[in-house]
Design a protein that fits this description.
about 130 residues; about 40% helix; alpha/beta; Rossmann fold
Length: about 130
Amino acid sequence: MRVVVTDPTMTMHEALLRRSLPADVQWTFLDITDEADVCRLLEAGAEIYLGYQFNATMARAATKLKFLQVSGTGTDEIDFESLGPGVIVANTFNHERSIAEWVIMAMLALSRQLLLSDRNLRSGLWE
């Protein structure tokens, strides 16, 4: 089985991934910015792709692709219409809470009331 990984955040897990699966799994970790290399590896028979982008050019090269794991919450960068029949696409979903917390924090931080309240509290004034 051939696996192509283009998500740079997965590089830190390369040793663990290689240890976790049978020795006959061929892993390739590379930079997504070199689309020609990605396509060459997909053409060579990659069955699994792990990354956050997958375009029509890559899909044409991926004739043996069976599974595409998006390494993020969204699938905006995946060209679904170009995927071959039967290709399974999965994405992660574990970022909802932290994204929601960040959005609320940003909304509060941009509120003049919050900044005024913070300034007042720091100067000893409790409203």
